[in-house]
Amino acid sequence: MALTISTPSNPSYLADDAIAKIHENPGFGVYFSDHMALIDWTSELGWTNARIVDHTPFSMDPAGSVYHYAQEAFEGLKAYRRADGSTWLFRPRSNAQRFANSCARLALPQLPEDDFVESVRQLVAVDSRWVPSGHEQSLYIRPFAVATESFLGVRPGKAVTYCVITSPVGSYFAGGVAPVDIWVETHYSRVANGGTGAAKCGGNYAASLLPQEIAYQHGCNQVMFVDNAEHTWVEELGGMNFAIITKDDELITPELNGNILPGITRDSLLTLAPEVGLTAQERPVSLAEVYEGLAKGTIAELFACGTAAVITPIGSLTDESGRHEVNVPADGGRTIALRNLLIDIQYGRIADTHGWTEQVC
């Protein structure tokens, strides 16, 4: 049976004019809405006490398991304000399924899909005034679960807190949609074979932070990782999936091999590819193939994709051997055509023929 989520009978809010001021320039992940969703789990009782409460700091013992053994998993999705004022989610059940898979890999309890979706829906409904209506703005939704048991032994925690917080956001990159320069990291690895690469968990992102700093030192916006065994095969960026568009109208992305996060934006683009004249392929992609394709002109475009940034053109790849330029089309090419198609579905500007969107209020 699905949990019943209690909601505040008289919720309090930041003043409307203050929220409107935040919406003028929300940034990304800087401001947070008035409320959050919480559900408790213990090994004795299972999932209990589902509720919407004020957004407030957690109180956790310094011996909390997550502090010591990083037993946590998270998700990222968005709520969109449409032209008629209604608010919609995009593929929340796919996020619920991925969250369950991530939790299973981290030895966390798996929240049922219906409870995940309902916790997101209820929170967005309560804080609907926080969903912005500006150009390509949205309400970013961050569900996560952390082991909270006070215990220093190395085993799965017997107490877990699931929480959902939200944040009004604009463009992930401060400059908006523009080609980004990528540092190709061939020494540090994001994940290892048999590790947590297919899970959305903090440890994967923590491992990417130092290489990201190295990317900045080389004048690049983001870092791309290759496999940890041969340092040959392209995997993904620090927080986004990687894709190629060829001169032969192919959309190619590295296949899911256990090291790559199964991105929901990635999956959506593979589905949408034929609608912009592309044939989608998932297969191993070597770094040498990418460099050769750029040199010979058989690769037309490169892009990165994910919930936060949607789709971002790649303008260059740089490694210790030098810089490899991408001739980004002046009109953005198929990359921007795909991007426009996806966001038009998300914002309800065209019909959703795939059943991906769900209205909240």
Structure description:
The modification N6-(pyridoxal phosphate)lysine is found at residue 200. It is a single chain. This protein is α+β, with helices and mostly antiparallel strands. The chain folds into 2 domains: 16-169, D-amino Acid Aminotransferase, Chain A, domain 1, CATH 3.30.470.10; 180-346, D-amino Acid Aminotransferase, subunit A, domain 2 (D-amino Acid Aminotransferase, Chain A, domain 2), CATH 3.20.10. It has helices spanning 16-24, 65-69, 92-105, 113-126, 202-217, 264-272, 287-296, 333-346, and strands at 35-42, 46-54, 72-74, 77-81, 87-90, 138-147, 159-169, 180-185, 222-226, 234-237, 241-246, 250-253, 279-282, 299-306, 310-319, 322-325, 357-359. The strands form 2 sheets. Strands 8, 9, 10, 11, 12, 13, 14, 15 and 16 form a 9-stranded mixed β-sheet that branches. Strands 1, 2, 3, 4, 5, 6, 7 and 17 form an 8-stranded antiparallel β-sheet that branches. A hairpin with a 2-residue loop joins strand 15 and strand 16. Helix 3 (92-105) packs across helix 4 (113-126). The protein is globular. The two termini are 24 Å apart.
Keywords:
D-amino Acid Aminotransferase, Chain A, domain 2; 2 domains; D-amino Acid Aminotransferase, Chain A, domain 1; alpha+beta; 9-stranded mixed beta sheet; 361 residues
- The CATH H-level superfamily of the largest domain is D-amino Acid Aminotransferase, subunit A, domain 2
Count of distinct structural domains: 2
**CATH top level class name of the largest domain:** Alpha Beta
Question: What can be said about the biggest beta sheet?
Answer: 9 strands, mixed
| CATH-defined fold name of the largest domain | D-amino Acid Aminotransferase, Chain A, domain 2
Counting DSSP H or I runs of 4 or more residues, the number of helices is 8
Order of helices and strands: HEEHEEEHHEEEHEEEEHEHEEEHE
Distance between the termini: 24 Å
Helix/strand-derived class? alpha+beta
Mean pLDDT: 96
CATH architectural designation of the largest domain:
Alpha-Beta Barrel
β-sheet strand percentage: 25-35%
Overall body shape: globular
Q: Count all strands and give the number.
A: 17
Query: What percent of residues adopt helix (DSSP H or I)?
Result: 25-40%
Radius of gyration: 21 Å
Enzyme class: transferase
Keywords: Amino-acid biosynthesis, Aminotransferase, Branched-chain amino acid biosynthesis, Pyridoxal phosphate, Transferase
GO molecular function, one term: branched-chain-amino-acid transaminase activity
Family: Belongs to the class-IV pyridoxal-phosphate-dependent aminotransferase family.
